[in-house]
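Worked Example 4.2. Consider the chain below.
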Amino acid sequence: MYERNQIQQHLVNPEEDLEQKSVAEALRKQWKSSQKNFLIFKIAVMITILLLLLLNAVHNFIHHDSSIICLKDIAQDWTLSLTKFLKDNKSFKNAIIILSSAFIDIGFIIFAIRWICLEKSLRLFITTFPFYLFRGLFQRAFSMRFPDDFIFENPGIFSIGVPYFKTNDFFYSGHVGLCTIFFLEFKKDKVPFLKIFSLVGITVNFVVLLVTRGHYFIDLVIGIIIAHYLYILGLWIEENVKKSNNKFYELFRANRANEEIPEESILQTFDQLDKDNSCNL
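Applying the procedure from the previous section yields the following C-alpha cells:
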C-alpha cells in the first residue's frame, strides 16, 4: 500500500520511483479503457433507439382508439380556418408535414452523432429515457378523442422519428419535447447554429401539429415543459454524481476525449484505496 506522501513525491519528481510511475500509467490506461467501453455503450443505445424508431414507423405500436367523445380545444377553434385551408390544399399540407418531420430527423441524427463522438456523460440518457417512459405511461392511462378535422397524415416521404399512423398518442407531444431537448443541449454546448435550428424546429412542429390536429394545444405545451424540467433534472443528477466522486461515475464522467487523469484525482484514488483497506482490516 502506497502512502499519500510517497505518491505526492512521485508526482513532483516522477523519476524517483519507477514503480509508482507504472501505477499512475495503469490508472491512465484504465481510464482510457473506460472511455472506450462508454463509446461502445453509446453506440449500442443509439442503434437500439434507431431500430425501435424504424419498427414503430413500419409497425404501429400504439392502438387506434376513437371512442373518446369529450374534449374542447379553444386553440384549435382559433386555427380552424388554417386547418380548412390545408384540408383543401393537400400538397401544401404534405409539404409542411415533411418540413416539420425533417427538423426532427435531422436534429436526431446530429444529436446522436455529437453524443457518440463528443459527450462523456449520461445526462442525455437520464433526460430522454424518462421523457418517453412517462409519455408511454400517460398514454396507457389516459386517452383523448381524435380532434375534428384530423389531417396529420402520411405525406408520402418516410420519416425516422415520426410515424404517420392514426394513433391515440396525444398527451404529451414527443415532437416538440424532443426538439426542446435538442435546443437545450445545443445551447449548453454553445453551438449557435444548431440552437437556432432546434428553436425553429420547435416552432414549426408546434404550429404544424396544431393546425393539422396532430396534437392538442395542451399536449404541445406540456411536452415542452416536461422536456425542460427533465433536462434540468439531468443536469442536477450529473452535478451531484460528480460531487459524490463515486467509482461508477469515474467510468462516465463528462470529460472530453483524450483527457489525462489529473494528479489530484490520482491522489484521491489512492486515498480511497487506503480507506477501503483500513475497513477490510
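Confidence is low (pLDDT under 50) at residues 251-261. The chain is about 70% helix and 0% strand. Compare this with Example 4.1 before moving on.
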